[in-house]
Design goal:
Number of helices: 4
Oligomer: single chain
Bound molecules: zinc ion
Number of strands: 0
Structural class: mainly alpha
Distance between the termini: 25 Å
Largest sheet: none
């Protein structure tokens, strides 16, 4: 297979940077709820907690994405990139271009 690994590495690093930037922007939303009881009503506190819960869920998603990206970068270094972790076959290049951190070929992904 003749994958342009440098290109994929660049793409993965860019994705990671974007995730980190998103994280920076969302930090405010994840700050602990410290609203004072006197200044806000019960409903506003619940709203704030829901917003916080959503921010935390997004944060977890970003973390797992970042782990997937790091794992893909490791696979590039180890020469494993582009091979399905389940069956060992080559992953279609179009699939990798679409989702560089993908770890399984389309056939194995379908069977999950
Ligand atoms: Zn496979």
């Amino acid at each position: 297979m003749a994958l342009d690994l440098d290109l994929f590495r660049e793409k993965l690093l860019l994705l990671k940077q974007m995730l980190l930037a998103q994280e920076e922007m969302s930090k405010e939303g994840r700050a602990p709820v410290t609203l004072e009881q006197d200044s806000v009503g019960r409903l506003s506190r619940i709203d704030a907690m829901q917003v916080q819960a959503m921010a935390l869920a997004q944060q977890r998603r970003r973390e797992s994405e970042r782990e997937a990206i790091d794992a893909a970068l490791r696979r590039i270094e180890e020469g494993e990139f582009g091979y399905c972790v389940t069956c060992g076959e080559e992953i279609a290049e179009a699939r990798l271009v679409n989702l560089p951190s993908v770890t399984s070929c389309i056939e194995c992904a379908r069977q999950k």
